[in-house]
Amino acid sequence: MKKWLAIAVTLTLLAAASAFGQSNQIMDELLAQKPATVGHAAYMVLVASGKASENLSVEEAYDATDWTVLSWMSVAGLQLQPASADSPLTLGTYAQLLLASLDIPGGVMYHLFPGARYAAHEAVFRGFISGDRSPGRVLSGEEALQMLSRALQWKEAHA
What we know:
Mean pLDDT: 80
Number of helices: 7
Strand content: under 5%
Shape: globular
Order of helices and strands: HHHHHHH
Structural class: mainly alpha
Number of strands: 0
Helix content: 55-70%
Distance between the termini: 44 Å
Oligomer: single chain
């Protein structure tokens, strides 16, 4: 009986280590990206928010993101979903992803017009962004992880 318990514990630890390794690999890939891709950023945000497992691939994380939650304007015929997981990550898209995935409340303008522009403004107000604040600006992987870190710190402080 002890032998089977030892085997089960060993297999569980190996599975956990491999999942942790995948997350680190994707983080390293994101850090090296200039520009960052939407799929890698979506993976990191979904895993950090607890809304997805570390076992997802980058493409599965992109597919698992509920882009319609990011704006009611998509109902009006505006295509807000990035074309693919390999699309360059813009500040506005990433700000929308952070606010929606981490359940961070927005201000009045973001609630009235929850698009990239006001998501970026909200992220500036919350202190997630440093540097150029243009919603159409393409982010590097390093900038994306810095923003995620600041957003998580803000979320923890205001929980």
